[in-house]
Automatic annotation (TrEMBL):
InterPro entries: AraC-bd, AraC_XylS_family_regulators, Homeodomain-like_sf, HTH-like, HTH_AraC, HTH_AraC-typ_CS, RmlC-like_jellyroll, Tscrpt_reg_AraC-type_HTH. This is Helix-turn-helix domain-containing protein. SMART domains: HTH_ARAC. Residues 178-276 form the HTH araC/xylS-type domain. Gene3D superfamilies: Homeodomain-like, Jelly Rolls. The keyword Transmembrane does not apply. Keywords: Activator, Cytoplasm, DNA-binding, Transcription, Transcription regulation. The keyword Cytoplasm applies. GO terms for molecular function: DNA-binding transcription factor activity; sequence-specific DNA binding. It comes from Paenibacillus cremeus.
């Protein structure tokens, strides 16, 4: 497994990709990723499971989730649209933090949205329109592409909420835990105490920590820290703000603590990370 040091020149990137590899080491990166499979069958390899992708399928990946998509037949190269974006982009979308929930609900939502789903079909249409807009670059194309991107996020979120409704009809309900995650996504840069979050979850403390990790694969503190560090990486790459300003804006109240956490997370200091951009 290797860290793919993908740099986003803008907050959203639509990239048309072709590949014929049948074996490859998994990779990870800090951007959120949506893969829209266009042609031929693919194997989507994650760290703990594989999926057989068919044309029309849509896959979503969380930041730092090891994965790779491979051609099942080298004679039939796969084609897909790869959408990469920074989590911070949702700040400009009304209630945008909710649209990130599917990307962080690890055990509550499959990364695969199958081709026969109306959500996958709508995502394909929107992704195709976004790629077309960038190719033509007519006046206002960036705004049109952003509209397509919002539509894609909304379709993923609607699919997610439908899955949650089915899940709750068959299992013990978890809506309060998901509301906790939504709250953390929208307030991660603020001071975050655990007791109020536990109260929001409507479960006891031990069960709160268990369920939170079941859903996100992280502890609450790891989750908050991950969101803060991802936001910091984006600002380091895409702003002229000082490292001190970024640290405090992202919720770190000590520059030395931010530097320590960032280096443990990225393997580089914030200054080294920025110098490579």
């Amino acid at each position: 497994m290797f860290y793919d040091d993908i740099r986003l020149n803008k907050e959203i990137s639509f990239v048309s990709k072709t590949g014929r590899l049948t074996e490859h080491e998994t990779h990870l990166h800090y951007a959120l990723e949506i893969s829209v499979l266009l042609e031929n069958d693919a194997k989507y390899h994650l760290i703990d499971r594989d999926y057989h992708g068919k044309p029309g399928d849509v896959f979503i990946f969380r930041p730092f989730e090891p994965h790779w998509n491979l051609a099942l037949d080298p004679a039939k190269p796969i084609q897909w649209t790869m959408i990469l974006f920074s989590p911070s982009i949702v700040r400009s979308i009304p209630e945008g933090h909710k649209l990130l929930t599917p990307f962080y609900a690890a055990d509550q939502f499959s990364p695969l949205i199958p081709a026969q789903s109306p959500y996958a079909q709508a995502i394909h249409k929107a992704a195709g329109q976004a790629v077309f807009e960038e190719q033509q670059q007519l006046p206002g194309w960036r705004a049109k592409q952003f509209q397509s991107f919002i539509d894609i996020l909304v379709q993923i979120y609607r699919c997610y909420t439908e899955v949650q409704q089915d899940h709750e009809a068959q299992h013990e309900p978890t809506p309060h835990m998901l509301q906790v995650i939504e709250y953390m996504l929208s307030h991660f840069s603020e001071p975050m105490e655990m007791e109020p979050l536990i109260e929001r979850s409507h479960v006891r403390k031990t069960m709160f920590y268990k369920r939170f990790k079941d859903i996100t694969s992280l502890t609450p503190n790891e989750f908050i820290n991950r969101l803060r560090l991802q936001s910091a990486m984006h600002l380091l790459d895409n702003s002229e703000k000082s490292i001190t300003e970024i640290a405090f804006e992202c919720g770190f109240h000590s520059l030395s603590y931010f530097n320590k956490q960032f280096k443990e997370f990225r393997g580089l200091s914030p200054r080294e990370h920025r110098s490579r951009a």
